[in-house]
Design brief:
Length: 646
């Protein structure tokens, strides 16, 4: 029988369907059998090793190690008064992931937080459910310790209370707010020191952080391992709280009554160059170091850009005493005379002639007295601050020796004081120290110094010729008061001989008694010192930096006060060192008795004032302008005057 094409297709479809059914049935049977075997095996595994595998899984859960903040070391004054300290505070940390690991932990844990920490129940539950994978949420900072104690007493031993722990941290506190702010510095948002001692000694102060991390033990209980933090070291500074306070009060009073662009005061012990006080312009609040509202009126502050505010903060934080440079003016004459004496190119018996100017290198360089001082002794050269005498002395010294002594006295290089931001100053290189430059450098112009350089140089003269490194910290000790480091009070080098130092001290005594520094006198004391007035560039603008370096008592100096005032606001006093000398006197009057140096009336200081001076006791005008090296006699032709002042 013959089949047509349609019948053949129907038969093929019926055959395929039947075969597929058979195959599917077999495969389904195999699948059911396999699933049954897997289920049985899983049941056996769960029964025999379920606990072991659960532990393995839990052990692999990622719990972030938590850093334990170290307590920062304190900063103290020389007498143990705390200037900076860290106070412990507690942050409440919630761990939603831990609470959600077991259903039975939620209710008792939330109830404990509500009852003992005072939290809102709905808020806590929402926080937990919305952050199921988080194990570290700072819910409250600086929590009250009494609440924490109550919670801990309840939760200890309660197996169903979990997911809350307390993180210790520390607040930096400055008890006296603004005191010595430019010396101490503050902490930035990362907890590291910014400016001052906080920055310079950051590694010593910060300590070593600890570490805490969590794991599960063999009973599936969460355990914690803690490596305790190591507390930072303490700094015992050379700063004297009372001396610093007095200085800052006097500076603030001067700025309020007279005013200036900048002002700096350093009080130093000349016997080891330790800093008793250091004030730079107005102090700022260390507890609120970014607040400039005291410096900028509210009407201006609201219109300032963020960059302008930042620049104002930088200006506020900067320590003028170590960071800014300026021409020292006549205070450097002391260094020039001491250098020449020590090199034996002049003697204490030499005399010098001043005609009001000196011709050097084709220039006529003027003296502060344009009519001339006449014949002067070496002592008188310092007393009257004679430019002409100093130019003659420098010429005898020569540029090589002059430059050598600049280095010996610490100029042109950082002193190494333990504060950040120190400048090195700017000297004329030896190759460029030509005849004219040497002449003008002799009385403190054409090169720049810092305040701390001048103070350290003067200290070396006052103490007999030993240069010490200026410093603010005298010892570093652990929190248990064990001293681990102390300042090495060995001198760095010898600058001049004792005989030279003795002559200079007596000459500076005469400078206060009957020279340019008479306003620095303090009744009952014999004080030595040297004034300085430097004309800023450009010279034609007639802007001045005035200064005074004074020390007392003359026979056994205990304290050096160095003051620099940049652009005195009163135009009548702008070129006079009188504001600096008077400010020094007001500071000396208060700090000397505090330091145990008392006035003794007509005490015999074994100093023959008339013999040392070699002159009549004529009054000296304290308002003399000793700054401009280019002032010439009035009868010079205008063209010569202009050329000299170019």
């Amino acid at each position: 029988m013959k089949m047509n094409r349609s019948d053949e297709g129907n038969l093929t479809r019926r055959g395929v369907t039947r075969n597929m059914k058979i195959g599917l049935t077999i495969m389904f049977g195999i699948f059911v059998l396999t699933c049954g075997l897997v289920i049985v095996r899983l049941f056996d595994i769960n029964s025999e090793k379920g606990s072991e595998y659960s532990k393995a899984v839990l052990a692999q859960r990622s719990y972030r190690p938590r850093t334990i903040q170290a307590k920062r070391g304190s900063i103290l004054d020389r007498n143990g008064i705390i200037l900076a300290r860290s106070e412990k505070q507690y942050n409440v940390i919630i761990d939603p992931r831990q609470i959600l690991e077991r259903d039975y932990l939620m209710d008792p844990s939330v109830e404990a937080m509500v009852d003992y920490l005072g939290y809102d129940e709905d808020e806590i539950r929402t926080l937990i459910y919305n952050n199921p994978n988080s194990s570290y949420i700072v819910y409250e900072k600086n929590a009250d310790y009494s609440r924490i104690s109550e919670y801990n007493r309840y939760s200890n031993g309660k197996q169903r209370v979990a997911g809350v722990w307390f993180e210790e941290s520390f607040n930096r506190i400055y008890p006296y707010s603004t005191l010595a702010s430019h010396v101490i510095g503050f902490l930035n948002s990362d907890g590291n020191g910014s400016y001052g001692l906080e920055q310079y000694y950051n590694d010593e102060l910060s300590g070593v952080p600890g570490l805490s991390y969590t794991y599960f033990d063999s009973d599936l209980k969460q355990r914690k391992i803690v490596n305790d933090a190591v507390e930072g070291n303490e700094l015992v500074t050379t700063i004297d709280y009372n001396v610093e306070r007095i200085v800052e009060e006097k500076v603030a009073e001067f700025l309020d009554t007279t005013g200036a662009k900048n002002i700096g005061v350093i009080v130093m012990d000349p016997n080891d160059a330790s800093i008793l006080a250091m004030a730079s312009n107005r102090e700022y609040n260390l507890n609120e170091p970014r607040d400039i509202s005291e410096l900028v009126p509210a009407s201006e502050l609201m219109f300032m850009s963020e960059d302008e505010k930042l620049q104002k903060r930088y200006q506020m934080w900067k320590n003028y005493c170590i960071s800014d440079t300026y021409e020292p003016g006549s205070t450097f004459k002391t260094i020039t005379v001491a250098s020449a004496l020590d090199e034996n190119v002049i003697s204490t018996e030499d005399t010098f002639n001043c005609a009001g100017y000196t011709e050097v290198g084709g220039w006529r360089i003027g003296c502060n007295n344009k009519y001339g001082h006449g014949t002067l002794t070496l002592t008188q050269s310092l007393m009257k601050s004679c430019n002409c005498a100093l130019m003659e002395i420098a010429a005898k010294l020569g540029k090589d020796s002059f430059y050598k002594y600049q280095g010996k006295f610490g100029f042109g290089a950082k002193t190494g004081i333990d504060l950040p931001g120190e400048s090195s100053g700017i000297l004329i290189p030896l190759r460029n120290l030509n005849e004219t430059e040497l002449a003008t450098s002799s009385f403190g112009t054409t090169f720049n110094v810092t305040m701390v350089q001048i103070a350290a140089a003067y200290a070396s003269i006052i103490n007999g010729g030993t240069y010490y490194q200026p410093h603010v910290v005298k010892e570093i000790r652990r929190s248990d008061k064990t001293v681990i480091s102390t300042y090495n009070d060995m001198g760095v080098r010898q600058t001049i001989s004792e005989s030279t130092a003795s002559f200079i001290k007596n000459a500076l005594l005469l400078t206060v008694e009957n020279g340019t520094a008479t306003p620095a006198k303090v009744e009952g004391y014999l004080i030595g010192g040297k004034t300085g007035t430097a004309q800023k560039r450009p010279r034609e603008e007639k802007r001045f930096v005035v200064s005074f370096a004074g020390f007392a008592p003359i026979t056994d100096p205990r304290v050096l006060v160095y003051i620099v005032i940049d652009e005195v606001a009163d135009p009548e006093l702008s070129a006079s060192s009188s504001p600096a000398t008077r400010l020094c006197a007001s500071i000396m009057k208060e700090i000397l008795p505090y330091l145990g140096v008392y006035p003794e009336g007509d005490i015999d200081y074994n100093v023959d004032l008339e013999m040392l001076a070699g002159i009549d006791n004529e009054d000296y005008d304290p308002f003399v302008d000793e700054s401009n090296p280019y002032v010439l006699p009035e009868d010079l032709p205008d063209e010569e005057f202009d050329a000299a002042n170019e």
